[in-house]
């Protein structure tokens, strides 16, 4: 009897369609017991027995780290933003050619005196600046590397892009692909505010990678 492999896929957003397309191309048909809104699916064929968990891409990282999943398709930005202890438990198996985006620092289009990190540093000397983001780890490391001080990084739990418009923060650290959402919220990136370029990737729990059936599945879908 084939041992079940647990795979996390995005339940919504930009990674979901292409992730499902990988399975479609490999003729791995996902079926569910409760219809298309079911967040648990299954794949059964002569080679693999898969249990599919449709979760937030961020939750997929945690699932690999705590061994509740074997394989996941998620964003590299989410992996690199997790703490070191989590990253050490996960193997980045293969980069995928979709989900391309960039993590950047944005400011208001009306804040004409702040165009670069140097400007941020100068302004922050006189008054602390707040920067809101869902990527605290990456943003704080970037600011430290660039020797930008006196910037308070606060966590965002909602629509990060509107924070400047409602005076919640002066800067935003967020993922952008086309830039249209930022532009719609009167945001423009700092001239040197690129933190990271990211894309989707196949990831595997290092603990699960020791299993032969998991390695076989990875080779098949990659």
Brief account:
The protein is of the alpha/beta class.
Structural write-up:
The protein has 8 helices and 11 strands. It has helices at 16-25, 57-65, 76-81, 84-87, 117-126, 136-145, 180-184, 212-221, and strands at residues 5-10, 40-44, 49-55, 71-75, 90-95, 101-108, 129-133, 151-155, 171-176, 187-198, 200-205. A 6-stranded mixed beta sheet has the order 2-3-1-4-11-5, with helices on both faces. A 5-stranded mixed beta sheet has the order 8-7-9-6-10.
Please give a handful of descriptors for the protein shown.
222 residues, alpha/beta, six-stranded mixed β-sheet, 8 helices, 32% strand, elongated
Layout: helices, strands, pairs:
Elements: E1 5-10, H1 16-25, E2 40-44, E3 49-55, H2 57-65, E4 71-75, H3 76-81, H4 84-87, E5 90-95, E6 101-108, H5 117-126, E7 129-133, H6 136-145, E8 151-155, E9 171-176, H7 180-184, E10 187-198, E11 200-205, H8 212-221
Parallel strand pairs: 1-3, 1-4, 7-8, 7-9
Antiparallel strand pairs: 2-3, 4-11, 5-11, 6-9, 6-10
Largest sheet: number of strands, sense, barrel closure: 6 strands, mixed
Number of helices: 8
For the termini, the CA-CA separation is 24 Å
Q: What form results from the Cα inertia axes?
A: elongated
Share in helix: 25-40%
Strand order in the largest sheet? 2-3-1-4-11-5
Overall SS class: alpha/beta
Mean pLDDT: 94
Element-level helix/strand string? EHEEHEHHEEHEHEEHEEH
Beta content:
25-35%
Q: Care to count the β-strands?
A: 11
């Amino acid at each position: 009897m084939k041992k079940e492999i647990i795979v996390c896929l995005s339940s919504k957003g930009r990674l979901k369609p292409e992730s499902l397309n990988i399975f479609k191309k490999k003729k791995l048909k996902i079926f569910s017991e409760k219809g298309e809104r079911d967040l648990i699916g299954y794949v059964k064929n002569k080679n693999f027995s898969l249990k599919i968990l449709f979760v937030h891409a961020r939750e997929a990282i945690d699932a690999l780290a705590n061994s509740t999943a074997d394989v996941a398709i998620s964003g590299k930005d989410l992996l690199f933003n997790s703490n070191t202890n989590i990253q050490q438990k996960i193997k980045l198996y293969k980069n995928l050619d979709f989900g391309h985006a960039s993590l950047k620092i944005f400011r208001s289009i009306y804040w004409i005196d702040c165009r670069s990190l140097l400007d941020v540093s100068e302004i922050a000397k006189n008054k602390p600046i707040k920067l809101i983001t869902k990527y605290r780890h990456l943003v704080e490391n970037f600011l430290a590397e660039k020797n930008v001080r006196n910037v308070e990084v606060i966590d965002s739990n909602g629509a990060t892009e509107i924070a400047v418009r409602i005076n919640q923060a002066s800067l935003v650290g967020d993922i952008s692909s086309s830039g249209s959402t930022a532009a719609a919220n009167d945001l423009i990136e700092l001239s040197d505010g690129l933190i990271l370029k990211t894309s989707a990737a196949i990831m595997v729990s290092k603990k699960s990678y020791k299993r032969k059936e998991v390695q076989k599945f990875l080779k098949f879908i990659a």
